[in-house]
Amino acid sequence: MGKLDNKIAVVSGAARGQGRSHAVSLAAEGASIIALDICADLEGNTYPLSRPEDLEETALLVEKEGVRAHTVIVDVRERAAVWQAVEEGVTAFGGGLDIVVANAGICAMGSGQTLQSWSDTVDTDLVGVFNVIQASLPHVNDGASIIATGSLAAQLGSATNQGPGGSAYSFAKQIVARYVNDLSIQVAKRSIRVNAVHPTNVNTAMLHNEGMYKVFRPDLKEPTREDAEASFPAMQAMPVPYIEPADVSAAVVFLASDDARFITGSQLRIDAGGYVKTVPWKG
């Protein structure tokens, strides 16, 4: 018996990274998964994104847990396409959603940024969250759980010195946090919960790319992963360079389950002390 037996979940950005981890972790607790991902690169992003075979691998991993998987290649920036994708998944599973994980995101950093980086980041990390959640609302059952992926960046404030991509990332995640707060009030009478998780550095392709390495090691012309990992721990109070996707997935599963049935409107930091290290107590 799993905590999420017979539940239906939609997860965006599910082809790899945190999204895949969330999908498989939810499946391990009994939830069937509607897995969404773009499976293509974006002009304004500075590192390669997923491919169709990545989404196929996620589906196989989900099905190994003994539940169903339904995949849709879709760009979360495109409202009509997202509504169609969610409708398709819900129909395939017989109607109704119990869990929504709006996770798809990019973070264009380093020297390859352009104004398109601003647009693609806002459209993916903010508009994409709106699209996935708004498309799901007509289908969510009473007592459902909606979870958005934020970031420690949302908690630390503006990052206008990080170029258009970095600035857009911080902006988008801050508005996602406010959206979660305000939406939670609107759906509370149906016992639908809306929360955000805010990770620090996570061991995924969003962190491990040349642009991000240059952010952490601006003193080097062509920093390697090894070079950057020497600086990664500066983000956290705990002596770790980053957390694993599974660390975030554990929080997602908790928020999706009845264990968190009275938790809503929360901003859950999974940041190894990154926030308390940086922001003074204001009590």
TrEMBL record:
Gene Ontology terms, MF aspect: oxidoreductase activity
Pfam families documented for this protein: adh_short_C2
Coiled coil: none
Keywords for the protein's UniProt record, in alphabetical order: NAD, Oxidoreductase
Domain of life: Bacteria
Family: Belongs to the short-chain dehydrogenases/reductases (SDR) family.
Protein name: 3-ketoacyl-ACP reductase
